[in-house]
Design a protein that fits this description.
alpha+beta, 2 domains, 9 strands, two-stranded antiparallel ribbon, 363 residues
């Protein structure tokens, strides 16, 4: 995606299935992102409707076809899709020459008015306005502190009937709208004025619950029930990612062993056992049996640690024979060269030296 962003976290969440479409010109040309949209966006409206939520995060309006805007609008109003626009230079109204979303059908369904502005506004720190809101209640915003600071934000204003749930406080300089949502037609849309990538949210990304914020937002927009026991959910989600990282490392170890000429069959069987345990744990998580899921993922992580110890032993054994073979080759070459040197330089003393001759002058 070019810069750190929530997609890797969303991609690992078992309750979600995500597809990334690069549509930002910060690191690529408009021609490149238009090619990306042509390649990865669904080709027909029916296929587009297979998605429950659409995320427009610093996406350039000119990357999309005109019928895409109709799809986004109709998908929310008629088919119950969710949609969110996240702040950034290419979001909302025109900023610094980037195309404005204001003339599109997407602007009609967002819970905010886009205010034209040449520059982004200075940032601020999140202040919750509605603690009883379902989305706010699903996260520990009371402890966000300095992690809730954003460096910049877009100029948007909540519509009259929108649920205006959080703002950015600029100290003594006032406040800026931050987060709002509404139900419109059959679907739900949300607007966040600040970027959640390092461009504006570098501190926010280090918040302990940043991943949960992004995941819960997707679930909320899709109309799904949000978790009640956030701490347990947080622990399970973290252990899911740790298990995935552990399995990825183990697969790398198998590749190393096989490159050394060893057999990866034992490791592959152990990894398969972990995968079976992981699938059972995921099933518990998806059925909201969180305590059992947490225990099952603890078992997965223990299996990963034990398998890693086994993998290190197998790798070291395979590496030993590689190094031993190399040592034999180097030592054998050295011995041959030494023998040859001895034969040429030492054994030559066994031969009688040739007598000197002197050329006589003819008489």
């Amino acid at each position: 995606m070019g810069v750190p962003n929530p997609f890797p976290i969303l991609e690992q969440e078992p309750l979600l299935y995500c597809t990334a479409v690069y549509a930002c010109t910060i690191h690529q040309t408009i021609e490149q992102i238009q090619r990306s949209v042509r390649t990865y966006m669904p080709r027909t409206y029916d296929r587009y409707l297979n998605n429950d939520v659409i995320v427009l995060s610093d996406a350039n309006k000119d990357a999309f076809r005109h019928d895409h805007f109709s799809w986004m609008k109709d998908g929310v109003l008629e088919e119950g899709q969710g949609l969110v626009m996240i702040g950034g230079a290419e979001s909302f109204a025109e900023i610094g020459g980037y195309a404005s979303w204001k003339p599109t059908g997407v602007a009609d369904i967002l819970p905010c008015e886009m205010i034209l502005s040449a520059l982004t506004f200075s940032g601020g720190t999140i202040r919750v306005l509605d603690w009883e809101d379902e989305f706010i209640d699903s996260l520990p915003f009371e402890s966000i502190g300095a992690y809730g600071h954003f460096h910049s934000s877009n100029n948007i204003q909540p519509r009259s009937r929108a649920n205006y749930i959080a703002e950015l406080v600029k100290g003594t300089m006032g406040t800026l709208p931050f987060l709002m949502w509404w139900d419109i037609g059959e679907g739900r849309t949300m607007a966040q004025s600040a970027d959640w990538t390092p461009a504006g949210g570098s501190q926010f990304m280090t918040w302990r619950y940043y991943g949960d914020y992004c995941i819960n937002m997707m679930m909320f927009l899709a109309g799904q029930k949000l978790p009640d026991d956030l701490e347990t959910v947080y622990m399970v989600r973290r252990k899911i990612r740790e298990t995935n990282e552990g399995l990825s490392t183990l697969y790398s170890m198998v590749d190393i062993v096989e490159r050394f000429g060893g057999s990866g069959n034992t490791l592959n069987q152990l990894i398969q056992d972990i995968q079976v345990e992981k699938q059972e744990a995921l099933g518990l998580y998806m059925r909201a049996e969180l305590a059992d899921a947490l225990e099952a993922f603890d078992i997965c992580l223990e299996m990963c640690e034990d398998t890693m110890d086994e993998a290190i032993e197998i790798r070291d054994a395979a590496a030993f024979w590689v190094f031993f073979t190399e040592w034999c080759a180097v030592t054998g070459t050295a011995m041959f060269a030494g023998s040859l040197l001895w034969f040429l330089m030492i054994k030559r003393r066994l031969y009688r030296e040739v007598a000197y001759t002197r050329l006589r002058q003819a008489e």
